[in-house]
Fold:
Amino acid sequence: MIRSVMVINTQGKPRLAKFYEFQPVEKQQELIRSVYGVLSSRAENVSNFVDAESIFGADTRLVYKHFATLYFVFVFDSSENELAMLDLIQVFVETLDKCFKNVCELDVVLNYSKMHTVLDEIIFGGQVLETSSTEVMKAVEEISRLESASNAISLVPKSVSAWQSR
Amino acid sequence: MENLFQRTLEDLIKGLRLQLIGESAFLSKALDEIRREIKSTDADTKANALHKLTYLSSLHFYNMSFAAFHVVELLSSTRFSHKKIAYHAAAHSFSDDTPVLVLITNQLRKDLTSTNELEVSLALECLSRIATIDLARDLTPEIFTLLGSGKVFVRKKAIGVLLRVFDKYPDAVRVCFKRLVENLESPDSQIVSVAVGVFCELALREPRSYLPMAPEFYKILVDSKNNWVLIKVLKIFAKLAPLEPRLAKRVVEPVCEHIRRTGAKSLLFECIRTVMTGLSDYESAVKVVVVKIREMLVDDDPNLKYLALQALSVVAPKHLWAVLENKEVVIKSLSDVDTNIRLESLRLVMAMLSENNVAEICRVLVNYALKSDSEFCNEILDSILSTCCSNVYEIIIDFDWYVSLLGEMARIPHCQKGEEIEKQLIDIGMRVKEVRPELVRVSRDLLIDPALPGNPFLHRILSAAAWLSGQYVEFLINPFELMEALLQPRTILLAPFIRAIYVQSALKVLVFCLNSYLLQRGNTASFSTFDGLVLERDDPESSILASCDAPVHCIQDEGFNPRVLNQSFEGLSVEYDGEETSTLGQTSALSSLKDGFTRESIINLLNRVELAVTPLTGSYDVEILERARNILCFIELIRQELLDSPVHKDESLESEEAQVSQIIKVMHDAFSSDLGPVSVSAQERVPVPDGLMLAENLEDLEKIFGDVQLPSLSSFSLGSPQYEERAGFSIPIHESKEEPAPSNESTSLLAEHRKQHGLYYLSSAKKEDNYPPANDPKLQVDTNDDDEDLVKLLVSKKKPCHAKPRPVVVKLDGDQAPIAANPRPKEDVLSGTVQNVLLGSDTNPTSSQSKVSTKSSSKRKGKEKLNVDSAKENLGDVEKHDLGNPSSRNSKHHSHGKGRRHGSPGKKGDEREENGQKVKQKSSHRHSKHQARQRAEVPLNVVAQTPVVPDFLL
Structure:
């Protein structure tokens, strides 16, 4: 199964973190840090694998892809195929691309819940659920529609964003 | 109105990007805000706060366990957006220990049966992450219903959630397994994909249980066009094939067909891996695969190259030819830019290592090590060291070569393997007698190099070298030179315990020199007394004797006379030296060594040692201090009694002289007794005295520390020789008279040492047995052709003939690697249930509650330990679970629970009970015994079941 999905920017800031087995937050932070430590030291144009067993324990593999300012990292065990996981990263990124029209790091930063919605349609409980980005998009759109519909019932305006500079 | 002014998650994120007060200050302020808002009675405010909190917890790692109850509150909101936030928060933050989990069962049930498929999907998603035993048990009926749902969107998630549910509550298999299997034949490829995925996960854990399903998987393997599905099915077959040879036979052809047909690299690689792991007995398939691997190896994509190398190392133990066929690429990959690829190819090169090519491969590897960065260099050294020493140096034939290789490794700039090299040098010294001269030569070269003490990683090697040259001093060509090296000023850079070894070795060398001198003088003395007689008696025998020893005799006589006449012999010694060197040329190496021990040189040596050791008596380290004192006292003793005696030529002193020489002889004998390796199991062979109960009350400890590894074979230490040496010091210590030696003498000696050192490096004419050192300039040039060298070397099949036979290597019983404790058989309640379901026999109900563990074996181990540790706690657990659980660890409860929930006949439980009685239960160890019983049952199942399989297959 897939143990974890991470999106980390090249500065080491996590942009998305999902662990399919419970990990305390402190442990999550430590794992992300060590993964970033390894990734940042790797050159371009080398293989997309990293020895993960020293970080995540026995029977774990890690593949990553580097897009612009972001690392997309999948951690999984022997029941997944490494190349298929690389393809799955591609599916994930393609879906995000469709979702945000030319995805960039800022989209990832600002759309926390949408990122999770997309990811949850691709990976379910650590298993690959859907590998077609069109299918994923369909589901995501439906969820968004229902979400905003349920919000529209609310009579009170959601909030004001005037406090940000406080 | 309060949420009018509330910040949304978006505001928070934007604010975080614009903040000027520092991130942590901003976040703690936001967190305070959230803590206030989340208590609000307004659902919107609460949802917003929870959303923000989840974000902070997920990406800024704040603990949000305090909000667990608010999550539960929000779950029951009727609004979809609230539900979504709440479910996301629950999936993110709930663990098995979250207390409020018991409160959400009904809400989950409600959502699972909702008409809104998105709500169902939310609940399933959450369940797939957080399901506990209770949740899994209570919600199994709802999940069962969803497995038959007409909506693909829901059904595939219901299938996915089964994995976690089965894990937690194996009895769910009885209910849901049939529908899960039916889904394998669904026309929708996504559903098949998820179902196969679940089976793949299950089969990897306990493949045997899924053998009866082989026909279904086979059908998918042949018919499916979906690569994702095929990959998973291949993974299943990789596990099943080794268990059932007939199945493997059936599968080989379709797998090869996929290899030929597919264009997808991922599927291709999975096929390759399946053949390599599961079907490696089928030569034809392996051949097809090796061709494909070669294609991958030369691919530009580093990923494919890496995976191909990995596949090769999987197959290396069984089909080494596959590696050998691709050796060119493998060796070229040693210099790849990618660390992964380099490491993988290093592993393969080590796999190719055999006693025929070990010398050549190691040389090339060492040259690679010289060129590579520190990390990879040490990886190389590490693999050489560990491969060569495996199974008591099994592959080493020529130990002289290996020892000089170790010496060379020490000179590699990045070398950080000092400890391992130290261990091996000493180990070889003790085990292999024949190699000791070479060891001493290598040690001398290391000790004499003044640059080496500057590198802290080499200190351990130097300590081994110092010990070896002291222990096997009789093989030294030039003890004086070594003494210089041991006492050189740069030893101050070494750690105290290593300096102590240096000092001790100096003492050994000194004793050796004195002993040799005495022997030599004893010979000449006896001749001088015979002097007149020999001349008078014209015996043919004695004339031969006389002529043989004539040169020595003359020198000694000449040396004696001036000493008697003249106290200051400094000037004469020059002349004397000249004469000595002339004789040196004629005599053999051994006799030249003996000739070196003149009175002159011994006095010089004593002075030199005294000068160098005296400052050490001020050392803060007791080891150094003690040994330095020992040496100084010894020198005093010797100087007084031994060297002054010829001056007086007093008859009364003869006896004292004899006493001194006896002391030296005793010490020399003490030092030269051979030290052998000590077996790891030596202690075990000591019989336990009667009445001593070692195992009493410590049984539990063994379980607790069961996984603690025995110390490795490296139980040799420098300790024992030191003890022995100290025992030799039972000599009465005379009062010491300090005799300060002239300081200019020491500086001149130092200069001489440096000169010698320099000379040594220039003269490469020195005999190097059959192995040139690494810093040989000629070799450096060669390094560019490494690849070609090694390739050639591996291509040429001819066996290098070993001129020397392999020396005897002392082996002990303890040297065999300790047999690893049998891995605990997997506890497989789940697979037991699966087997029952598949075989249609319901005779063996499982006790699902017996473990609270997840499937990951490491976790389970921890759990077991815990259980053994605190049986009390377990019992408490049992009671707790019994309140609401159909079954428990106790099989009585279990059968009872069964009858209640599933209506399975009680007698089965009783049967089990009887079964269980065979294993005597102690109440305090109930749980562990229970596990043992389960384990005992599993093989029975298997035996009963294997004959059934063929029917399914054919």
Q: What stands out?
A: Residues 841-953 of chain B form one domain. The mean pLDDT of chain B is 72. DSSP finds 47 helices and no strands in chain B.
